[in-house]
Amino acid sequence: MSFSTRLWHPNVSSQTGAICLDTLGTAWSPVLTIKSALLSLQSLLSTPEPKDPQDAEVASMLMNDPDMFERIAREWAIKHAAAPSNTTWNPQVHVSATSKPKSKQTLSREEEMKKYHGYNKELIDRFVNMGFDLDRVVEAFEFVHIDKNNGEDYELEEAYMGDITARLLGEP
């Protein structure tokens, strides 16, 4: 799998469109579906891994000059993907339809953190941002016995990502 549209991302070759994602290569398993592969790809695109790059130049720019990285990524989106040139990113506009209602968003920080059952918020939110319900993501983490790592963020191994995704998608 590769992109035919050029994009500026550390885990995608800016020359060939090749994707640096283990689930598409060495970590592929018959249990993975197209849907789970696309979810893994969505996660990679929204959470770049500059320490494991497909394109070292892009990764270096992301780590050393994030403003320039963002500017060039935007230019490439306009030039190569026909992105609108007169818009700005507003995360509030791009909230998924499964996000929490406003009344729940007013919970205190402590009450909100209890919902994560000791897992790091950013770790869980990577899956929530793909459109999965917070409670279902936490349940999937507990079902797969994911380490809470004392509430610290860390990168999940590809096999665990596949197991969690399969659980969230109701696959065996």
> Which structural class is indicated by helix and strand composition?
mainly alpha
| Domains (count) | 2
CATH architecture of the largest domain: Roll
Give the end-to-end Cα distance, rounded to a whole number of Å.
25 Å
Q: Approximately how much beta-strand content do the residues carry?
A: under 5%
Instruction: Give the C-alpha Rg.
Output: 17 Å
Mean pLDDT: 82
GO molecular function: ATP binding; transferase activity
Organism: Glarea lozoyensis (strain ATCC 74030 / MF5533)
Active site: 20 (glycyl thioester intermediate)
Domain UBC core: 1-82
Provide a short characterization of the protein structure.
By secondary structure, the chain is mainly alpha-helical.
Task: Tag the structure with descriptive keywords.
172 residues; mainly alpha; Ubiquitin Conjugating Enzyme; 2 domains
Secondary structure blueprint with pairings:
Layout: H1 34-46, H2 56-64, H3 66-81, H4 102-105, H5 109-114, H6 121-128, H7 134-144, H8 158-168
Helix pairs in contact: 2-3, 6-7, 7-8
